[in-house]
Structure formats: C-alpha cells, structure tokens
C-alpha cells in the first residue's frame, strides 16, 4: 500500500520529509498504518482461510501479468501446490521482469554438467558462458559453525539429525534446553515468517534484560530452560504448523531447503509472540543459586533506596516524575495534620 509502483522502493522527497519532521503525530500514525498492514498478513498463512485464498489469487494475477510474454515460463514458475507464504516472495521488484527480458534465456530443468567453458543443458546442448554464479543460498540448519558446549554436550551434536541437517528443540526461540545462561535473537521457532523484525528485536532484548536483572538481584548462578517444557512447546508448535502454508510441499529456507524439512517457525502471529514474551516464565527454568539458601540475597533487611537518595514512598507515585527523595512542603502539616482541628 505504501511502497512505490509495483512494490518498488522509493526515495522520500523534500516535501514528504518536511511533513514528517513537522508532524510527529502523523509520523507515528504513518508508522502505525504500515505496521497495521503487516500485522494482518499472518491470516493468509493459515490454510483454507479467506485471506489465504485472496493472497493466492492476487499473487497469481500479478505473476501471470508480469510473465505473460513467456507462457512456458509462467507455467513453470507459478506455484501449483502451495500458497503464498510457503516460500519467501520473489527477491525484489523487477525480478520477474528480468526473467522475460529479451536478453535473458531461462532454463527450468536441471543442467547436465559444468564444463571448462560453460555448461550443458538437460538436452545435452552446450552453452558457452563468461561467469557461473552458484547461488546456493545460506545454511539454515541452525547448527553453529564452532563448538558450542554445555555440560559436555556440543549443540552441534544435540541438534544434528545425523544427515547433515538439524532437528531442533528450542525454548520459545530465545533459549536452549540444557544450555544455561544462553539467550539468542530469533532462534528456532521464532516469528521469522512475516512482518518487521524491529519490534521483535526490542522484545527479545527487553526479555534478556529482565532475566539479567533478576539474576543480578537474586544472586542466581544459572537459568536453564527445562527440557520437558521445551519439548511440550515444540509439540504444540509442530501440530499448529500443520495448519499453515509453511508446511506445504514447497522447498524453502524455512525448512532447510527441503520440501518436508522441519519448519521451526513460531506457531502464531507476531502479536501473539510479543504477548508471550511480555515477561519471563521463570517456572519454565531450572534455577541454580550462588548461595545454599536461595533467600540469601535478602541481605540486611533494608532496601537500597532507603540509603541512596531515592524516594522511599515511590509506591504511592512520584512527585515531579523524579525518583528521588522529595523536598517536601513544610507548610502542608499546618493544613492537614489532625492536631490543627483543635485550634
């Protein structure tokens, strides 16, 4: 809705930038309208939904229009057995247009072989080329590139499926069962399938800070997501994901480049995820304390604000919005003290 023609990027002109600078509330409304549109897209991921049908029809019409000059190519490229969302959309505006350009020739079958001067196609015909670029994508197996060990177990072994891929169980995408004090941004089963990452990064960060603060205050040595809880979360996710386009028979990076790979995506919308991570569920963790008595952190019985100059009645609200001991109105006692009623 807000992009350039056919979804292209654009540069804000001087008038638009001036408008945003002078109207901060409208700038917020502009951001909210864009985010509002993004937050509704999860509905078309659900198989059989009206939104899914509309998204498929829109995508089909757009692709058919842009590939109209080469019907053979349209027949090969437009998906027939899965809906939008199963794979990522085409890379960028201009991609489909490039495929039908007069100076391009598209092979849709596997090549025969690569030779010193080019390659042979599926019919055995040789083609000379200047450069071959192998766009094989990224390793999305979730396996780290280096030893990552906790309690003698390497995460690469824990998550390996034995076939060069991965079989992962995470805790809400942010933690790993049996790995203490480890938190990550968008681990397995994170909401990586739709919408902007910015609010998600902020939520992961706030969650981590909350855990760190609790560990510092309560002298906690280690917090480890429970394996039983993590497995239950994965069981729920795997069952829910059967309702989504992500588990349709497409080959996608969501599933490590396989048609039937593990779709380790969050089982819900972004709003659903943001609410889940609103505050840590410490009951889901094994907690180990630095002291033998878990209440040793209560210390000498005083709160630090009783000595550091902060407001010692902050629970009633703050005067002048400052958390510091107020300079109280000394005349107020002459107005509201009980003994003044006897005068």
UniProtKB/TrEMBL annotation:
InterPro entries for the chain = FAD-bind_Monooxygenase_sf (IPR051209), FAD/NAD-bd_sf (IPR036188)
The entry's family comment says: Belongs to the FAD-binding monooxygenase family.
Q: What is the recorded name of this protein?
A: Monooxygenase
Q: Which organism is it from?
A: Cryomyces antarcticus
């Amino acid at each position: 809705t807000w992009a350039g023609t056919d979804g292209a990027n654009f540069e804000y002109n001087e008038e638009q930038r001036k408008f945003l600078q002078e109207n901060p509330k409208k700038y917020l409304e502009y951001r909210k309208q864009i985010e509002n549109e993004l937050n509704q897209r999860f509905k078309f991921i659900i198989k059989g939904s009206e939104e899914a049908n509309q998204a498929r029809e829109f995508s089909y019409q757009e692709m058919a229009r842009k590939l109209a000059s080469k019907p053979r190519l349209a027949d090969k490229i437009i998906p027939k057995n899965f809906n939008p969302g199963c794979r990522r959309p085409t890379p960028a505006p201009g991609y489909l247009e490039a495929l039908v350009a007069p100076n391009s020739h598209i092979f849709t079958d596997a090549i025969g072989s690569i030779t010193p001067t080019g390659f042979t196609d599926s019919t055995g015909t040789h083609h000379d080329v200047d450069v071959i670029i192998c766009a094989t994508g990224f390793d999305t197996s979730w396996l780290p590139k280096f030893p990552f060990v906790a309690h003698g177990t390497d995460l690469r072994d824990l998550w390996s499926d034995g076939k060069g891929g991965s079989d992962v169980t995470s805790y809400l995408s942010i933690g790993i069962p049996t790995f203490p004090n480890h938190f990550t941004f968008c681990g397995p089963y994170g909401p990586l399938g739709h919408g902007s990452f910015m609010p998600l990064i902020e939520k992961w960060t706030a969650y981590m800070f909350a855990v760190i603060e609790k560990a510092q205050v309560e002298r906690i040595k280690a917090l480890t997501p429970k394996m039983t809880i993590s497995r239950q979360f994965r069981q729920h996710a795997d069952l829910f994901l059967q309702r989504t386009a992500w588990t349709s028979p497409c080959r996608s990076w969501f599933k490590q480049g396989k048609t039937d790979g593990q779709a380790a995506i969050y089982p819900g919308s972004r709003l659903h995820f943001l609410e889940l991570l609103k505050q840590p569920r410490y009951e889901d963790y094994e907690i180990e304390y630095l002291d033998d008595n878990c209440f040793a952190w209560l210390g000498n019985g005083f709160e630090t604000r009783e000595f550091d100059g902060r407001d010692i009645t902050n629970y009633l609200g703050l005067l002048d919005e400052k958390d510091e001991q107020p300079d109280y109105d000394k005349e107020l006692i002459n107005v509201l003290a009980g003994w003044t009623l006897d005068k």
